[in-house]
Amino acid sequence: MSILTFSLSSLILFLASVSADPFFVVQHGNAIVTSRRDPIISPGGVSGHVHSIVGSSSFKPSYDYQNSLNGKCTSASVSVDKSNYWVPQLYRKLGEGKLELVKMNRVNTSSPIEQMYEFPKGRKMLAGNPFRNTFDANDPAQAAVEYVCLGTDDTPMNAFPERSCPDDLRAQVTFPSCWDGKNVWLEGSKHVSYPSSGRFDAGGPCPATHPYRIPTLFFEYHFNDKYTYTPDARVWAQGDDIGYGFHGDFTNGWPEGLFTQIVGAGESCAVLFEIANCPPLSKYFTGDRGATCQPDDPSVVVNEEIGLTGPVAKLPGDNPIWNGGAAPNKPGGSAGGAAAASAVPASGGASSVAAPASAASSPAAAVAVPPAGSSAAPVSNAAASAPPPASVPAPAPAPTTSARYGGWGGWRKRRLNYQH
Known about the structure:
By secondary structure, this protein is mostly beta strands.
């Protein structure tokens, strides 16, 4: 049986004025790793569910900024993007209890720029809650998870569409855009927050607890959805067949200072797919060579059947399908792993689900906007135990520029109309 696919690229947008929205697209040729790994939530261990991971080939069960930079290659068409980005693996229910893996092959990420602060070395972030089974439109962390059924009326919705999507199913999540200025990670991704008022992506004021504006990272995944619609057929790897539990993870691997140059280049980097025409990036453009990039260490892939060669009888990690109900309670849980159903998103933040913390490093004065095998590794059906929370203060960051780069309304309209 054929494996369904979706295409992957990454859109990075720099808002330069109300009338012009400079942006460029970084494409990814393939997923570097598809496995039960999550270095943010289950560092050094096996995570509770399967993720599709793109970016640096040096991806490991534990994240280290320098290790990311040392990757031999990247799935990105820009050779210096050594970040890693991942989301839960999508499956499709078949008859007789079988599940078909929907293979990833494109993601878009985007971000507007006004007065910004760089993603510091070691930055990690989460957006979304994998075990959310209800929806509150007034909570920005919940509203930030959306789906668009391309080829229909393209209206964003917050659960799986109740129809097939002739021009792809687009699953998307917007990350928090406000930072505490001190930490690269806090338990539950509490070092970042959504704006204190307005839509999650409207560029509203940052709360006093998180006063520093950071680029608004946006994941956008396109799935081939050209099949006869069957109710409740789509299911994320954690068992969510409703759709509220879509989520994204990010670990920074961009070199310091590069995005200062990109912001300085302004509209000359409004090149869409023509990255070779953006002066700061032209020498790093590699076309589709990222399609052949493989993990530096194949043993990062957990040795288990996840559906890459054919249908599976159950979700890897023994995750029960919710069947439209509550997420099951599972031990050792946290965002990205096998979390308890009672996990609730933090007010204004990415999620309040428990997750390991890590030391902060000093942020540089620059703007950085990341885009979006087999092994002998031991198999476990339980998420790794999280270490106790910790944080290390960093020196106060300095903005890249004091100039405001336009309004956010035009960015959002253009982003929603972007369907490539």
